[in-house]
Amino acid sequence: MTEIKNTSMAYYNIDNFMEDEQVASVVFSEDIMGTKLYKVVKKNKKTEMHIFAVRFLIENEFCKIHRSEEDIGEFSRLKNDLDAQADIVDLKNEIFYAFITAQKSDSENSSEFLSSTFLKRMGRFAKLLVKENFGENEISHLSYEERKIIIQARKAYQAHVKYEVNIL
Predict the structure, then answer these.
(1) Radius of gyration over alpha carbons of the chain, in Å?
(2) Which of 52, 74, 130, 161 falls between 20 and 30 A from 59, CA-CA?
(3) Alpha carbon distance 104, 22 (integer Å)
């Protein structure tokens, strides 16, 4: 790893991003040649990879999430928390892969659970759309997808308000 001393340049250091990125255990359906992001992977062997790469690979059916008993227990605990009060559960990056796993098993029950959880959470966070300003702490425990939805919806709302003002 190359050490970057200048603090303004350290912000752009890819190693800093990679250290903080969540990893998930996956199993590949075929041998994979190594790259800068991961080493050579043998078929049907469990390996850990960063979430940003795993998501692409799963969507294109190159690998699947490896499920351990610990992961299943953690997801059960999380599911209970979300059923109790979905809007206060911290869903930022660290458990993102659990939702991918949930979609891949018990498909009917999981998709219903994910839909109801999403609706409960968005019902609470929808008020951010019309708020003039909000801080990072107000969206800190949203998942990546939830943040993206809030930010895109907010942009659409602001464009609508600007359009209405221009008409009047």
Answers:
(1) 20
(2) 74
(3) 19
Phi then psi for 149, rounded to 5 degrees?
-65, -45
Q: Are 29 and 62 in contact (CB under 8 A)?
A: yes
Confidence check: pLDDT of 17 > 80: no
Query: Mean pLDDT over residues 99-105, rounded?
Result: 55
pTM: 0.49
State the total domains in the chain.
Answer: 1
The CA distances from residue 123 to 89, 117, 146, 156, in Å, are 14, 10, 12, 18
Is there a domain that residue 147 lies in? no
Backbone angles phi, psi at 61, to 5 degrees: 60, 35
pLDDT of res. 1: 46
Q: Which amino acid, one-letter code, is at 5?
A: K
Residue numbers of the domain that contains 19: 1-66
Query: Do the beta carbons of residue 14 and residue 37 sit within 8 Å?
Result: no
Kindly state whether residue 36 falls inside one of the protein's structural domains. Answer: yes
Written as six digits, the tokens of 118 are 């999403």
Residues 27-55 have pLDDT tens digits of 888 887 877 766 787 888 888 877 777 77
- 98 close to 75: Cβ distance less than 8 angstroms: yes
Spatial CA neighbour of 97 closest among 48, 24, 26 = 24
